[in-house]
Design goal:
single chain; mainly alpha; Arc Repressor Mutant, subunit A; 2 strands
Length: about 190
Amino acid sequence: MSALAAGRWTLGRESFACLLERLGPDDDRAAREYEAVRRKLVAFFSWRGSSWPEVGADKTIDRVARKLAEGARIDRLSGYFYGVARRVLQEEHRRRAGERAALAALQLAVEPRAPDDDIEAQIACLEHCIRELPEESRRLIVGYYESHGRSHIEGRKVLAARLGITYVTLKTRALRIRAILEAGLARTLRS
């Protein structure tokens, strides 16, 4: 049976066995096919510029295993793997775009140490500060700055609804997280 960890599905023994059963008639062949599929998926993500190709491959395999465990009928399993991989890659690109937008939107008020300060150092520092946030805060701030232009308010309203909070509460939390990031960035860049 699949396992739920904090509301998220994880690959369990039974769902993994179901996947292996579809990959090959015996354990050895199924294991070889599993390794081949994973290797191809890692290559797929690598060739398309994924920051974490192994993670993308594992997410793809987990999602396919979940569908199989739920009883989905999949005729062309190899094609299905690539369809799921494309969706996982799109999610990663959207998440990275949201992180870049969050960085640009923060417009941090930090005094540069010197005129030749490298923007890459600031980005690396901000990424470090974002990674230090609790998972919920990280998702909130990235989601908050994800949408652009006229649609940003609608996107933020959707995010607030998804989180079960009001738009005003979302905005307040985002501003608090932004202040934490600005302080962390200022502290790190001054040292």
